[in-house]
């Protein structure tokens, strides 16, 4: 079905509260495909649709130029073989599967790695300024645990340049983008199929009822439910998880969260912000508080270029065992590198450290500690087209699951956005074309309206931000880099108590906008994401990749499965298809050694 971006504005009567600050306006719009999220994955999908002449509307809860994608620094992977001619997409697939600790879906991995060169070509076609060698070849750098150099980049502003490039292309195609609309519900009819989404404008409270044939969920992950995180404030609060689950979807591997080794410690309001892996890629050295270079004790071959999970665990162990810095970190030192290398290859790290700490990294080391960074699990999707359990609902990017398993290779996330953005755009278009009619549900719309009205009428003593902080504390104490049964159970008990207090919140929009309402929904999402994470982490009674269980320090071959969660089924084991022989032969190590917890 093809709608044109029809729009109706109406005021739907006086709400239950007499508060004059509360907007009663509702905007009604129709489109063929609605994209929730304007990061790299959402924009790439929207571009695919617009290039095919399909009506599309994209929206985000924060400005499009300031999404998580624009923070990505180090690079984007494709086996272009411009530097190392022996590289191939099959080797890229083998490295990805190897480093996923056999939890990635081989089909998803094949689709991304074989489609990666096309993803880079698309970006070039849109005008992306990749770094190049003197003869014009795209430069590729080493990222941890890759067999060859295959990470393309633009200084250490790769994500920012990708985001700019996609926004420019979206503007050329005149794709309508709304920058401050918070989606609170995916609308589902009585047959369980999608027919749109409901939300509100964070700035003025205007409600949005958007009818669509299909909805693409590109709303990021859940790593902001930990205290120290590389996420921006108010992003990655688990919205994709809640929106998908409330619509009838499931989550896969929510417990698999990548802790990046290098989050800064100060200032407090920027704690957890990332020092790009490029700093280690370019030759940065890690030292503990005693001045010892310690990676040799954890991965003697690869040292600082080991995988993120091992470097993060090594840093955690040094700190936990009393060899940390006075502030509870370790040192990351690039000061031995030529100044020119730092200024051309790490300009963002240089600038950021000057701005945040007045620290000159050409002279002094950076104090860092592990920080929650990336959701490797996410909404359950089919590998081929990222459709979910809910007809008409798709998930992509960090919101989705299947590519990374228990450890994401640096640079693989950005390429996933490009590859699956294209595929999912096409899949959503085909789904829409196959609809002869669409059922809607006035009850579903009424429930979405009532959910907002109910929150706006609350005036309880519990503070939404304080409850969010409590969830972050719980997750940090009980579901951080190293976990155990007792801690996870305590975490669940604390979460029960927090959820009980959530019944007494007060939501107060003010003259500055509806941020308080947005925080209330963020809180709901964070609580759901935290529960799913704790339950799956309990069930994964082993140590594998990012998931370290001090009470189960070995890898358990029986747990070479994905863990799928929904409120009605609880945690269920899902088998993973076999790795094709041609790729398996390219894999290096014995995975059972890699799974061992070093503490
Ligand atoms: C500091 C940093 C450095 C990184 N470096 C790299 C790197 O070098 N290479 C690499 O491959 N990966 C890197 N990553 C990871 C990568 O950047 C992200 O995984 C990726 O950009 C996520 O893109 P996305 O499109 O899935 O979501 P995002 O870019 O996070 O966008 C999410 C969108 O959803 C919107 N949204 C969320 N909730 C709602 C809601 N309820 N209603 C409406 N809109 C909503 C947001 O406003 C936003 O528009 C890095 C990440 C960080 C934080």
The assigned CATH architecture of the domain at 261-372 is Alpha-Beta Complex
**CA-CA gap between termini:** 57 Å
- Count of runs of 4 or more consecutive helical residues: 16
So what's the CATH class of the domain at 261-372? Answer: Alpha Beta
The 3D shape can be described as globular
CATH homologous superfamily classification of the domain at 261-372 = Succinate dehydrogenase/fumarate reductase flavoprotein, catalytic domain
**Percent helix:** 25-40%
User: How confident is the prediction overall: mean pLDDT?
Assistant: 93
Determine Rg (CA atoms, Å): 23 Å
Ligands in the structure? flavin-adenine dinucleotide
Tell me how many strands there are: 20
Kindly identify the CATH topology of the domain at 261-372. Answer: Flavocytochrome C3, Chain A, domain 1
Strand content: 15-25%
Class inferred from helices and paired strands: alpha/beta
Weakly predicted, low-confidence segments = 12-18, 592-599
Largest sheet, in brief, is: 8 strands, mixed
């Amino acid at each position: 079905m093809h709608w044109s971006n029809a729009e109706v504005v109406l005021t739907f009567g006086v709400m239950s509260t007499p508060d004059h600050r509360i907007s009663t306006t509702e905007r009604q719009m129709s489109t063929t495909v609605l994209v929730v999220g304007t990061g790299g994955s959402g924009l790439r999908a929207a571009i695919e649709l617009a290039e095919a002449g399909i009506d599309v509307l994209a929206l985000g809860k924060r400005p499009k130029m300031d999404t998580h994608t624009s923070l990505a620094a180090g690079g984007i992977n494709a086996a272009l073989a411009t530097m190392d001619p022996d590289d191939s997409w099959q080797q890229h697939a083998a490295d990805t599967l190897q480093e996923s600790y056999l939890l990635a879906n081989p089909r998803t991995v094949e689709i991304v790695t074989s489609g990666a060169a096309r993803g880079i070509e698309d970006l070039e076609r849109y005008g992306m300024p990749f770094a190049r060698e003197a003869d014009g070849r795209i430069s590729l750098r080493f990222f941890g645990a890759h067999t060859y150099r295959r990470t393309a980049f633009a200084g250490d502003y790769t994500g920012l340049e990708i985001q700019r490039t996609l926004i420019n292309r979206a503007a050329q195609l005149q794709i309508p983008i709304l920058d401050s609309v918070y989606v609170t519900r995916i609308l589902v009819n009585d047959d369980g199929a999608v027919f749109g989404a409901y939300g509100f404008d964070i700035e003025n409270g205007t409600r949005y009822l958007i009818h669509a044939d299909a909805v693409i969920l590109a709303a990021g992950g859940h790593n902001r439910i930990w205290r120290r995180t590389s996420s921006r404030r108010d992003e990655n609060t688990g919205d994709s998880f809640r929106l998908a689950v409330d619509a009838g979807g499931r989550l896969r591997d929510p417990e698999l969260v990548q802790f990046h080794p290098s989050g800064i410690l100060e200032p407090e309001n920027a704690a957890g912000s990332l020092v790009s892996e490029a700093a280690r890629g370019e030759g940065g050295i890690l030292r503990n508080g005693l001045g010892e270079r310690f990676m040799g004790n954890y991965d003697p071959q690869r040292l600082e270029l080991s995988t993120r999970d091992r470097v993060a665990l090594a840093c955690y162990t040094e700190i936990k065992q009393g060899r940390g810095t006075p502030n509870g970190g370790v040192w990351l030192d690039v000061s031995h590198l030529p100044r020119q290398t730092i200024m051309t290859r790490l300009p963002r790290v240089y600038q950021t450290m000057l701005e945040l700490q007045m620290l000159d990294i050409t002279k002094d080391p950076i104090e860092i500690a592990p920080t929650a960074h990336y959701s490797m699990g996410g909404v359950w999707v089919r590998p081929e087209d990222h459709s979910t359990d809910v007809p008409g609902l798709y998930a992509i990017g960090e919101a989705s699951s299947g590519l990374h398993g228990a450890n994401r290779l640096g640079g693989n996330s950005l390429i996933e956005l490009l590859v699956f953005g294209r595929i999912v755009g096409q899949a959503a278009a085909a789904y829409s074309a196959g609809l002869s009619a669409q059922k809607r549900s006035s009850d579903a719309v009424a429930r979405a309206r009532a959910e907002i009205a109910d929150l706006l009428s609350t005036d309880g003593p519990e503070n939404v931000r304080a409850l969010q902080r409590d969830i972050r504390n719980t997750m940090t104490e009980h579901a951080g880099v190293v976990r155990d049964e007792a801690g996870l159970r305590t975490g669940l008990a604390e979460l029960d108590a927090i959820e009980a207090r959530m019944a007494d919140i007060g939501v107060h929009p003010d003259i500055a906008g509806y941020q308080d309402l947005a925080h209330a929904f963020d809180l709901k999402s964070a609580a759901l994401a935290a529960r799913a994470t704790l339950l799956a982490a309990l069930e994964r009674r082993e140590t594998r990749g990012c998931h370290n269980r001090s009470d189960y320090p070995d890898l358990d071959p029986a747990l070479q499965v994905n863990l799928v969660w929904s409120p009605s089924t609880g945690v269920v084991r899902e088998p993973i298809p076999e790795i094709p022989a041609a790729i398996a032969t390219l894999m290096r190590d014995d995975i059972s050694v890699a799974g061992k917890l070093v503490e």
